[in-house]
Amino acid sequence: MNIPSSIWTLLVGIVVTIVSLWYGQNHGLLPTPASDEAELVDGLFNAMLTISTGLFLIVEGALIYSAIRYRRRPGDDSDGSPIFGNIPLEILWTAVPAIIVIGIAIYSFDVYNSIGGFSPHSVHDAPIEEQAVRMPGAAIAATLSDTSPNTDSNLNQEKSDAAMQDPATAAVRNADQIPQRQNAPGVGVVSPTIGASPDKEGTPPALTVNVTGLQYAWIFTYPDTGITTGELHVPVGREVQISMTANDVIHAFWVPELRLKQDAIPGRQSEIRFTPKTVGEYKLICAELCGPYHGAMNTQFVIETPEAFEQWQKEQQVASLDLQQLVAVNSADLSPAEFLAPYVSDLGIQPEMLHQVHHTHH
Amino acid sequence: MTQAQLQEGANISALSEEPGGRKWRDYFSFNTDHKVIGIQYLVTTFIFYCIGGVLADLVRTELKTPETDFVSPEVYNSLFTLHATIMIFLWIVPAGAGFANYLIPLMIGAKDMAFPRLNAVAFWMIPPAGLLLISSLLIGDAPDAGWTSYPPLSLVTGQVGEAIWIMSVLLLGTSSILGAINFLVTIWKMRIPGMTVNQMPLFCWSMIATSAITLLSTPVLAGALILLAFDLLAGTTFFNPTGGGDPIVYQHMFWFYSHPAVYIMILPFFGLISEILPVHARKPVFGYQAIAYSSLAISFLGLIVWAHHMFTSGIPGWLRMFFMITTMIIAVPTGIKVFSWVATVWGGKLRLNSAMLFAMGFVGTFVIGGISGVMLAAVPFDIHVHDTYFVVAHLHYVLFGGSVLGIYAGFYHWFPKMTGRMLNEFWGKVHFALTIVGLNMTFLPMHKLGMMGMNRRIAVYDPKFETLNFICTMGSYLLAVSTFPFIINAIWSWMYGPKAANNPWQALTLEWMTTSPPAIENFDKLPVLATGPYDYGMSNGDNKEVENVPFSDEKEPALAAGPNSALRADPDPKVAANPEDRK
Ligand code: HEM
Ligand SMILES: [Cu+2]
Ligand SMILES: [Cu+2]
Description:
Oligomer: heterodimer
EC number (chain A): 7.1.1.9
Bound molecules: protoporphyrin IX containing FE, copper (II) ion
CATH class of the domain at 207-327 in chain A: Mainly Beta
CATH topology of chain B: Cytochrome C Oxidase, Chain A
EC number (chain B): 7.1.1.9
Number of helices of chain A: 12
Family (chain A): Belongs to the cytochrome c oxidase subunit 2 family.
Subcellular location (chain A): Cell membrane; Membrane
Pfam family, one (chain A): COX2
């Protein structure tokens, strides 16, 4: 094999490195990071993009270089030199990607831990060994069954009950109609979580918001203040916990600026915690296909100063009182469309969408 | 003597004037010749590709502007659901089986597949399944819950369409299981004596890996779909939360198949590329064993990564980490392949014809999809981009930039063998140029769209994304245009193209050692191996001494004895390795 002289290799290496480092920092591919978590995720992405750019340039460069340099010249019918392999080279290019992915994995692990991926609820509440030992019958069969004689308290149910304590949440959620999932043996609580970051472990969040997804709207209830709204407002700099579930099909809570996404699943309580960082108005998007109007299922997500947030809360409390009464009269067996009707202007849903809900509702 | 002359000299081409499929009617019948079946597969799936492509362009037309102004949101959902289902289950997966059907018996010197009738059965499940699926569009109740068909959504959208979708996918899954059994038995049992596993063409290795995952994972999909059908039609609540069912269990079962399925969709074409690059680079494939075993590694690892599709749905923290790590490890065998291909090309004498261009384009574009795949494996980043256009971009770089370019490379490379005619090179290159430009124009901007906040499967989007979407849409029209030179070239050349020699590329694998197109039972006599499958360049057109033969120090027949050559193996008493001895 014609390995180019080492000077050229060095030069190309330097150029590739510089370009990659530059592009990894200046790609402009991500929106504003609006939470502490977002900064961490962006750091990881920039690192991955730097390495990726390098790899990309090397592979594409080698291919294009070969296509030009080694193309067959007219009249030359000979073959290239018979090289079947090169053990040191092969070890090298097995080892290098292996080291790279180990590095990325460790970095990801660290970021994941820092944003609260390992919040204690999902791990410590159901240690595998303990569960497995107590399991009657074959271990495999037991893991498949969720009606095992497990008398442990069910965290998912507890969280649902806790959320339903809030009358505003109870009015918009249909948890009473959808049985809550049990803890899965050996897997722990079934509710997926991005919990408190390690430094905030054990402290309750500054603000809790219950989020309910339904075709095709998000409804936010604030248990501390009894507010029900169609927009999510949070104060900057205070840790927020979102507790979500869905009333009908799976939806997904996504704010690109937070870099956080979590499915809202009927029958399960899922949580994310984050600390808003940058004041502004963003879009909160439903990211999981939930029906024909999925694309229109989005709303405002506002990070505001604590003063503005107080102010907003006051306004909402007045408005919510009316809504509470409305809901209290006819909550339980309304279809989402009927239920949503009074909120239409509030939620920013177009009337034809609601009309559609009537028709597609099962 | 060159290796090709040596190999051809050792094998007398079949005398028969009659190719496998004689009349056009053979191709519409329950023919059991593997070559007829292979072509049936390829042509049928290509027709589905065109239908899937039209649907894609309808989707993109809707996405040209932020509003829904082209089709209704319901129809939009049906369009992308059918687009994806057709592309995956009726194009990429069966097209791989088509090449395998055509090539495997020829490559291993067999007369046919192990179970010819089963083979025909497997093929003949595909057209009805496809027609069934498309009929749903005509009766106005097409499935619209996405090709993943997650409950509870799939249980509350149109019932008829969903039932049709399940039925059709079940049929297609059955077909691919039958095919997989056939490939495994054929490769394992029907190689000519003297061809050890380490002398098989690499395509055979990739089909072993593919068939293994097909057999292990497809039944799980069938299980999921049958349970889903019960929920849908009989009111059970396996996955329906209103009765206490668990929609996440469906996701596990679905992805237990569908993640490995992406390897079912790409491994065969990894194999094809490993065949095509050395022939046109005129160099041995670099790292035969590394490429062969990495296919197996990919297929094994592919079975334990499924939950990376569920990082944002419902799995606990430590499981996310487990699946992140297994997923990232796949980058290693995949990387080995990519680097080996690049090294195969490096220092060769590249014949940059259409087949080679598509093969190199495959490597170049697949790399982008592979890199974004590693990024997606990183849980914190995946949480951000899951279910966005970043994923749409990633999957198309893999499936279009990978699988589809691989199929095209294969079409151009084996067309002379299949039809006995040469394709027009000029139009082939036009096809290549349009495809590469269109492909990148369509899918590259989608990376940015996804990261900035455009979620997938939406008919309306934020107006700030309009420009990039417009570029994507124009790119998709270019892609549609790019297929015309190919279709016209293929049809015209099939009828009037210049006659192809038996071995127009001076290749060494056995399929080239028979007539073009091959006769009914492929070979008149049992073929023999005079060289390994990739022993290019061991003698450079003349008999001057061979330098630089790394693994062999013999001089004659060192000419023929690359590391994968039968001549290097212990002589098999049943087969005379030396052609002179056979006469
Ligand atoms: C002909 C060029 C193609 C174009 C323009 C195209 C376009 C698109 C677009 C715009 C989407 C997103 C739809 C949405 O999220 O609303 C999509 C989805 C998809 N496409 Fe393609 N595509 C093409 C070829 C292919 C090929 C060759 C495959 C091969 C398997 C494929 C497989 C898929 C899959 C699996 C999805 C995901 C659908 C979903 O989210 O349910 N596409 N395509
Ligand atoms: Cu939704
Ligand atoms: Cu949605």
